[in-house]
């Protein structure tokens, strides 16, 4: 009976070996065969090669740039890789740790692109800046400015009372608009120190800028003043040595819609009004213009 037992053992070994080859399971040694892993639904994958979803995820991550090279154009690729990872089973996620680390780094870098820096958020909250210092209103910035400072507008602004400039400074409008509904004037220059206003539109006013110093030194560059009554004027002082320069600047009567064919007929409607003035200069250059007023430039007094 011993020979029958040996035959049965030999048949069992032969069947095991055959099954192992059929299922591509490695054999440890003759007569000692590893148990085959059957393809049972829900069973843990033996390797990354057996998980198609994990392979697809790794392929998507491989196409992503490194974290230090991420741009806004990578949004769809980052989203696709993240969605592929979220769809993996827990046992599959274990197989892709290296790719997961890269995805985390890329996702963090991408998120940083769309998150405003603290300094940017602070800047957006201010109406005007002097250097790195922000101010809630343009008037506050002008009041706090030292002589020779540059006040930079951060967005459109509104004046509810006359803005008084009593020191030499530059106001950089950055292409924004200051609205001053009904003010007469909107801006008053009360210093003989040089005042420069650049790239600013002043609108909604009756009178734009008042020269309230006997020796005003004012230059407007790249500006537009829309006023219903007077663009720039002077009160009853004795003026001497004024310098008024309009460089690529327009002063428009806001009550006129077509400057080629219309003028507002009103004795008080004046583009630039000068009173009791001597030894002074008014210069218009680089396509500057005065449009729609009864008087373009009016000189009166003694």
Description:
- With 302 residues, the chain is an alpha/beta fold.
- The protein has 7 helices and 22 strands.
- The protein has helices at residues 2-23, 52-63, 75-86, 90-93, 97-113, 118-124, 138-144; strands at 27-29, 32-33, 128-130, 133-135, 150-153, 157-158, 163-165, 169-172, 177-179, 187-189, 195-198, 201-211, 217-221, 224-233, 239-240, 243-247, 250-253, 270-275, 277-278, 281-285, 289-291, 295-300.
- Strands 6, 7, 9, 10, 12, 14, 17, 18, 21 and 22 form a 10-stranded parallel beta sheet that branches. It has an 8-stranded mixed beta sheet with strand order 4-3-5-8-11-13-16-20. A two-stranded antiparallel sheet has the order 1-2.
- A hairpin with a 2-residue loop joins strand 3 (128-130) and strand 4 (133-135).
- Helix 2 packs antiparallel against helix 3 and helix 2 crosses helix 5 (97-113).
- The radius of gyration is 40 Å and the shape is elongated.
- It starts with a helix and ends with a strand.
- Residues 1-8 and 28-40 have low confidence and may be disordered.
Please give a quick description of this structure:
The protein is an alpha/beta fold and 302 residues long.
Structural class: alpha/beta
Distance between the termini: 145 Å
Uncertain spans: 1-8, 28-40
What's the helical proportion of residues? 25-40%
Largest sheet: 10 strands, parallel
Globally, the shape reads elongated
Q: Strand portion, in percent?
A: 25-35%
Order of helices and strands: HEEHHHHHEEHEEEEEEEEEEEEEEEEEE
Number of strands: 22
Rg (C-alpha, Å): 40 Å
Mean pLDDT equals 84
Number of helices: 7
């Amino acid at each position: 009976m011993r020979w029958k037992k040996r035959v049965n053992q030999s048949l069992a070994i032969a069947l095991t070996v055959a099954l192992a080859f059929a299922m591509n399971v490695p054999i440890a040694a003759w007569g000692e065969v590893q148990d085959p892993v059957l393809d049972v639904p829900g069973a843990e994958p033996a390797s990354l090669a057996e998980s198609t979803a994990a392979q697809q995820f790794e392929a998507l991550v491989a196409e992503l740039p490194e974290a230090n090279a991420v741009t806004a154009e990578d949004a769809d690729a980052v989203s696709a890789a993240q969605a592929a990872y979220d769809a993996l089973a827990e046992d599959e996620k274990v197989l892709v740790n290296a790719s997961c680390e890269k995805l985390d780094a890329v996702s963090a870098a991408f998120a940083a692109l769309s998150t405003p820096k603290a300094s940017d958020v602070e800047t957006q909250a201010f109406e005007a800046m002097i250097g790195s210092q922000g101010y809630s209103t343009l008037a506050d910035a002008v009041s706090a400015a030292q002589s020779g400072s540059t006040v930079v507008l951060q967005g459109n602004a509104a004046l509810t009372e006359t803005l008084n400039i009593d020191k030499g400074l530059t106001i950089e409008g950055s292409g924004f608009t200051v609205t001053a509904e009904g003010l007469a004037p909107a801006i008053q220059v009360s210093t003989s120190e040089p005042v420069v206003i650049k790239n600013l539109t002043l609108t909604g006013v009756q009178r734009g800028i008042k020269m309230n110093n006997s020796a005003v030194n004012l230059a407007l560059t790249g500006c537009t003043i829309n006023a219903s009554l007077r663009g720039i004027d002077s009160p009853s002082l004795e003026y001497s040595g004024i310098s008024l320069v309009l460089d690529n600047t327009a002063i428009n009567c806001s009550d006129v819609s077509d400057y080629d064919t219309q003028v507002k007929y009103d004795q008080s409607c004046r583009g630039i009004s000068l009173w009791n003035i001597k030894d002074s200069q008014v210069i218009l250059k680089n396509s500057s213009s005065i449009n729609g007023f009864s008087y373009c430039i009016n000189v009166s007094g003694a």
